[in-house]
Amino acid sequence: MFETTLEKEKALLVGVAYGQQSIEEVENNLSELALLAETAGAEISGQIVQKRTQIHAALYVGKGKADEIVSMVEMLKVDTIIFDDELTPAQTKNLQKLFEKARVIDRSALILDIFVRHASSKESKTQVELAQLQYLLPRLTRAWTHLERQRGATSTRGGMGETQIEIDRRLIRNRISMLKVDLKKIETQRDTRRKQRDDMFKVALVGYTNAGKSSLMNLFSNAGVLVENKLFATLDTTVRKISILDHEILLSDTVGFIHKLPHHLVASFKSTLQEVKYADLILIVIDLSDPQYEKHLRTVNEVLIDLGVLERQTLVVFNKIDLVGEPEMLNEALREHEGSIPVSALRQINVHELEEKIIEIRQSDFVVETLILEHSQQKFLAFLHRSAEVLNIEYEPEHIVVEIRIKKGALEQIRKQSLTDGIQDV
Predict the structure, then answer these.
(1) CB neighbours (10 Å) of residue 74?
(2) CB atoms within 10 A of CB 250
(3) DSSP label at 421?
(4) DSSP code of residue 149
(5) Three-class SS of residue 242?
(6) Domain layout of the chain by residue ranges
(7) pLDDT > 90 fraction of the chain, expressed in percent and rounded
(8) Dihedral sign, Cα of residue 240, residue 245, residue 247, residue 249
(9) What is the pLDDT of residue 272?
(10) What CATH code is assigned to 10-114?
(11) Among candidates 229, 266, 290, which has minimal Cα distance to 31?
């Protein structure tokens, strides 16, 4: 299995501004890459940015810049060179030959390393291993140069079998297939649990990694979710039933997003992100104290588009307002994003305003209905308890009067059932 280790290693960051990208944009990307590298335990020794019309097909950077990097690696005694974009297998091979002792990795490999360190549940470990193998498969090289072709396992006459690299590829493909089956089972289990709580109003926290989602989750639910000032501190989705202003809702905290999050990672974490797909309200948590907050918001929206959930109701929550130095920056953000809520999860500023907004949205998605049941319809009464929020029950001599609060979308199902069972609407 592919794995990187960056403890106590000196790292050099490399980025290319190509096409319409500016040098400033790539430098901002490298600032994020530096945070990723530091999260993985590396020490940043320097960075190099080159402006090109397009990425060099063989070396990512131009030949002259590659030679410059060789000199810089020797001078700074760099152990690892991290490239901001995903390298092709050929680029990785060529660069590794050029830099000899210094290890070459890209953004995807670095993120995978962090994911390996932070995966704790069976689901996240399965997802990370799948992403690792999908990354590794096209990058396999012949690591054992002394091996000739292996004889076929069933051959007694010395027939030509598979090469070692072919064996490795076959084993990896088999393992990928097994992991996909395992994830499908996990997804089915998630669907079963989700159906059991389908009547509840579901809120999902999404946002850039390190935006404060876990802090909000803990504030609302005492969930005990790990909170660290690191990227991708948590990978597992946490779901909790909580009470906000006497209303019960389901709140879920998902894996954080990041700029240029590799597509195969999003695909591997599809089952985890399904909580977002089925949410009634998506809270987009943005760290307003970060100068790149607008870019982060765009990144989150891009991932939501990829997941096909942008049509869901969303609410932008600007977190960490206690760290915003200029009040005008907050005012401008609120003007630009009408309806957004400014909070500080750490200082518990404006949290009550956020709670009120969540309940306001919840109420708009629910209706209150009064039904009249026969005393013999206890089975249907139990169905109502499972399918809706029962607000009041009055047992009268001839009928049972039941007041429920239910999602607008589920009301039609209740009405169809009421026609079948002879139930009256008041």
Answers:
(1) 13
(2) 20
(3) H
(4) P
(5) strand
(6) 10-114, 119-192, 199-349, 366-425
(7) 36
(8) negative
(9) 62
(10) 3.40.50.11060
(11) 290
